[in-house]
Every structure is written in C-alpha cells, then in structure tokens.
Design a protein that fits this description.
260 residues; alpha/beta; Rossmann fold; 7-stranded mixed sheet; 10 helices; 39% helix; binds S-adenosylmethionine
Length: 260
C-alpha cells in the first residue's frame, strides 16, 4: 500500500515537546483549556464517559488492578485512573509533557514512563490489567505504528485484561469535490489538517478494519465498537482469558476418559 507520509514519529515527538513549552492545556485539550479547573474537570468527565461504562458493564472493581495509559501527556486522564486503580503506568513519547504531568498529578501510585513513540518495551509481558488511550493514535502518522501499539498492548496485558482506545474514524463518503480526497485520505492514512483552538494539528484517520486485523492477530477480541465513522470511535478489546482447570484431578480423569 502506498504511504503518503509527511512526518515521521520523531517529528511528532518534537512537536509535542514544543507544545509542552507553550500553551500545553490548549494543545492537549483545547475545549477545556481556559483554566486548570476546567482542564481537570474534563479528565474526570472523560473518565466517567469512556472508562466507567466498561468497568460497570463488565462488573470490574479497579481498586486492585493496574492500568496503563498510552499517550498520557500531562496526566489529564491518568489523574483519575490513579484515583480508581491500584496503580497506573503513564506512558508518553514527550518527555516534556510527562514533566508537566509529574508536577500536576500529586498521586503516588503512578509511574511516568517516556517511550520512543512506538512500543511499550519497558513494560513486562502480562503485567497490567487495563490499557487506555484517548486522543493519541490520531497523531501517529503511520497506521502500522498504531497496529504495533495494539500488539504491544496485547503483550503487556494479563489474560482477561482490557484495551480501551479511541481512534479517529471519520466517514469517507461525503459528497462534493472533496469526496475523492477524503477517500484517499481515509484509505491511505493521509493527514488532514484540523484547525482548532489549539492551532493547526495534523490528524490521521484510521480504518476500523486495520484495528480489527491488529487485534485479531495479537489475541485480542473486540467486544464493542462505539461511534464508528466519527472523530471519536472507541474500541473495547479483551485479551482472551486462560481457562484455569478448576479441579486438576477431575480434569485429568476427564482427559483419561477421552483417551481411546
Ligand atoms: C492530545 S494529547 C492527549 C493526552 C492524553 N491522552 C489526554 O487525554 O489528555 C496527545 C498526547 O499523545 C502523545 N503522543 C503523540 N504521539 C505519541 C506516540 N507515538 N506515542 C506515545 N505518545 C504519543 C503526545 O506527546 C501527547 O502528550
């Protein structure tokens, strides 16, 4: 598939480092950037919108669990993960964003981890229960790098653990002269420049099919897809739970019984 990339991962990291030195609230979450109170409230609201529904639907008590956030930034969401989960690993590619996060979030149960923008190398296999990502994958220029993150998430999740993430999955069937451009953009992961209150940002649409493939190949089963064809599509994926043998003696007996 042809790649029409204008930037690579290092360019993006540099840009986020630069944003951390400017009006970082506006760059991270423009809609709630007028004050620290509004910014903090947006994190609490988004925890209620995007995390609590899954925990309630699955009957999960996060108090004993470890969460990992991909692209934690200044900890807008990590703060509320910390309040609810036993421990949090806040991963981001921008050292400068994380530096602000460390100052903003007083919680002691968080580990701030700077990565290379591509994988979760420093995190052990099967070591976390829940992974979350919001407002991050749309900034990654190469669709394959997003798939790598999905595979990495599958690696570090414990069996039965959940990956909950947002991707930009806007429709490519609009009418008018832009139609062809939108189809190409969606298909080949070409950036669209979105002008918003935080300035101009390149955002990259992602096909749900590519995410299905990445999940399927890495042992994650998609349980729900929400708000498909919007800027804020959400995927809930679960790592297959390993069935424990409840009674080893009974299990052995049943295996013997099946032996011809
Ligand atoms: C719009 S902010 C969102 C931050 C946070 N998820 C939130 O909801 O407040 C995007 C964050 O993603 C980080 N980021 C961008 N590309 C990344 C990558 N490839 N790997 C890890 N973090 C990345 C940026 O440094 C920035 O902190």
């Amino acid at each position: 598939m042809p790649k029409m990339l204008t930037k690579n991962c290092n360019d993006i990291i540099k840009e986020w480092d630069e944003r951390a030195q400017g009006d970082w609230r506006r760059s991270v979450w423009a809609e709630a950037s007028e004050s620290e109170e509004a910014f903090r409230a947006s994190g609490e609201r988004d925890y209620g919108r995007h995390i609590r529904p899954l925990l309630s639907a699955q009957g999960i008590d996060p108090g004993k669990l470890v969460a990992l956030e991909i692209g934690a930034g200044v900890g807008r969401m990590s703060e509320f993960l910390c309040r609810n989960f036993r421990g949090v690993v806040a991963v981001d590619a921008s050292r400068k964003m994380l530096r602000i996060g460390r100052k903003r979030v007083a919680a002691k149960n968080v580990l701030w981890l700077c990565n290379d923008g591509k994988n979760l190398q420093a995190v052990a296999d099967a070591s976390v229960d829940f992974i979350f990502s919001h407002g991050v994958f749309q900034h990654i220029p190469c669709a394959e790098d997003v798939a790598v993150y999905v595979r990495e998430a599958a690696r570090v999740l414990k069996s039965g653990g959940w990956l909950v993430f947002q991707v930009m999955n806007q429709p490519h069937f609009s009418v008018g002269p832009w139609k062809a451009a939108l189809i190409v953009s969606h298909r080949f992961h070409v950036p669209r420049v979105r002008i918003h209150r935080g300035g101009a940002l390149e955002v990259y649409p992602i096909r749900i099919g590519a995410m299905r493939k990445a999940c399927g190949e890495s042992g994650l089963e998609i349980a729900r897809i929400l708000h498909r064809f919007t800027q804020n599509a959400w995927i809930w994926a679960r790592k297959a739970a390993i069935q424990a043998e409840a009674d080893p003696v009974e299990a052995r007996a049943s295996r013997l019984a099946q032996t011809p």
